Amino acid sequence: LFNTFFTSLIAGGCAGCAVDLALFPLDAIKTRLMANAAAKLEFSKIYKGLSMAMAASFPCAATFWASYCSMKWILENYANPSSPTMLHFLSAIFGSACTACVRNPFEVVKSLMQVGAYKSVRSASQGILKTKGPSGFYVGLLSLIYREIPFDAMQMIIYEYLKGSDYGGSQLSLYRHLINGAIAGGFSAFITTPIDVAKVRIQTDKGEGKYRSFLQTIKLIYKTEGLPALWSSWKIRVIYITVGGMMFFGTYEAVKAEMTTQF
Length: 263
Description:
Blueprint: H1 2-35, H2 50-79, H3 84-114, H4 121-132, H5 141-163, H6 174-191, H7 193-203, H8 214-225, H9 227-230, H10 234-262
Helix pairs in contact: 1-2, 1-10, 2-3, 3-4, 3-5, 5-6, 5-7, 6-10, 7-8
């Protein structure tokens, strides 16, 4: 269990950093469009929040992979799930919940900076504490969990199925891991876009109280802006997560293979 935890922790952290460093500009555009479907993009501010994103990359990705792989190991050895799909589903739920608790404070600060509400991590953190208190860093946590669990569960089930190692398949090349990651990420991203839109609206509310809960936000967006607003910037999200999935799973598998060889 320790070897599984340690290897997945390091490999997962490296995967998260690789994705966020390369794809942050697309994430910034996506966030601005989701916060306001009619927003005018200011490319001079496209890297705002990068420091917060990079600070979050390693711990969040490491938490997911370490908790996912550890729960998978525990279930395989002690619970004997009825099918590989159930194994991956339960492991993804656990990994997603653990990661959301680590990710949410970073997400709140990053989103507020990306929409131009604050100019620095320090000012954003101070503003959140002043307007909402410490709990402000966990605004949108349930929405984040609602988004992450369906997305992570769907993505991991698809990826593990394509990977095939738990279904009697053989070892795959890095090229196949890249393709499988892209497919799993892109499909899951499109399906869960409305949940991501709601999460961004709640996190960037700035204490106005317009968006109070996940379901209330979904209903309000649909009523005032129409169905297309729930899929605002879906193309950017799908492109971002398709490429991100390719890098995320490819980097993870490459680092994991190297660590397994070395240790």
